Amino acid sequence: MVHRVAVIGAGASGLVATKCCLDEGLEPTCFERSEDLGGLWCFSDKANCRRVSVYRSIISNTSKEMSCFSDFPCPEDFPNFLPHSLLVEYFRMYARHFQLLRYIRFKTTVISVRKRTDFATSGQWEVVTDTEGIQESHVFDAVMVCTGNFQHPQLPLASFPGIETRFKGQYFHSQEYKDADAFRGKRVLVVGTGNTGCDIAVEMSHVAAKVFLSARSSTWVFSRVANHGFPWDMISTTRFNYFLEWLLPSAIMKRIKFGKMNSWFNHKIYGLASAKSSNFHFIINEDLPFRILSGTIVLKSNVKEFTETSAIFEDGTTEENIDVVVFATGYVFSFSFLEESVRNTINNNGALYKCIFPPQLERPTLAFIGLVKLTGSVMVGAEIQARWVTGVFAGVYKLPPTSKMMAEVSKKQLPVKRNQSEKQNLKMNFISYTSEIASCAGVKPSVLRLLLTDPQLALAIFFGPCTSYQYRLMGRGQWSGARAAILTQWQRVLKPLRTRVLEDTASSHSWRWLGLLALPTALVVGVLFSKRLRMGWVPWAGLLE
Q1: Whole-angstrom Cα distance, residue 508 to residue 505?
Q2: Looking at domain 4-151+333-431, what is its CATH homologous superfamily?
């Protein structure tokens, strides 16, 4: 029986893992190598090779309602998208509310995690830590690794001939970037069009002489601000939309998505993406299209090589007088503290059962929390993982036999032919993954059952945003405030916007009538739509041509 649990890291995943341990009657000890909680969201203006932290201006890509923990809504006066300071403040509020600080040992680095000699029967681990030069050895019944995706910068300099031997300018990984002040008047090349690369390029473009943004693959851009000004994930991440994605052929759904993004601006004209591209990924950035349109950012192809002062690109073009190169080339995770026999089996999260458990272990007492890339908030994914994992540790839930877990892992692993960057860009569907883990934990809500007992709540769950509160309506860990949190979530979205309220007597009544008409309208549209499809009508033909 598991009692003592080591939690490695006090970021979002570590905090919720510690809290879930307490919920199951376990005894957690959380080890955090820095002096504060919050993980990478805890901003530091000093570049530290041992610790990854965000840059000064960063704002979350997922909204507060879609990111908060399931039994602790964000304050209603918080903005919908949080800067790092407010997100860390939310973490502190969460830690104080659930009295988690007493279980965290700050300035303590985990040196090694090794199986005990009797692991096959006990499942125990020997954990060695270092606290300001003093090493200690501990024995734990289970370990939760909560160090996340962003551990060690990936800097593939060998792929860029000349950068180390000829180039005389400055170059560094985006991990070292904090703000744009030092780059005023410079000619900067940013390599990589992920969220971080585009954010840095946009920010630098306000002060730099010119910013060049090098892209290797197609990149689709969308805004945090969706229809009518609402947060994008509150509109798009719904069970109804997920049902449509499941129902319709993937080619049609791809056309719908690409058409919607091209309705904002034509990605092909901007050189970002083509509907015919096979290798693509999505980023969130409201400012990038305008910065390209204004000429302060110039999009370029992949870098072929560097000379002393210039960059030569694969399309044959050259940009002279480059002062700075920023490599926004992602991160890798190594888990150097794990013993080699365990570490070698975890090359990526595809080698983990449900992206959590190493399936080959004799005892399921090691779990990875937050080591998953989702189309929505990883915080919510980490919480549902931690709830299931601590239930497994407490003996409430049972894992399948090793053979079945290994078979599922092999089935879901990506083909070997995919390159590493393509693997890193792939994300799992937020609703699909969280619902899958919620089913394992017995907390996934039944919309059909609720439709009979609580129609208002059922409609809010199916047609409204898939917020984490839905996983507190039933089962183990049920929260009495979950229903109210779901039915008031839009109030918390609107609250910080009401700093100047304009009188409109008709608006409230209009919204009520729209709510009443939502279900019958959806049903009528669905029937007509299915009939049209059976007749062979494809409304999206030529949309992207």
Answers
A1: 7
A2: FAD/NAD(P)-binding domain (3.50.50.60)
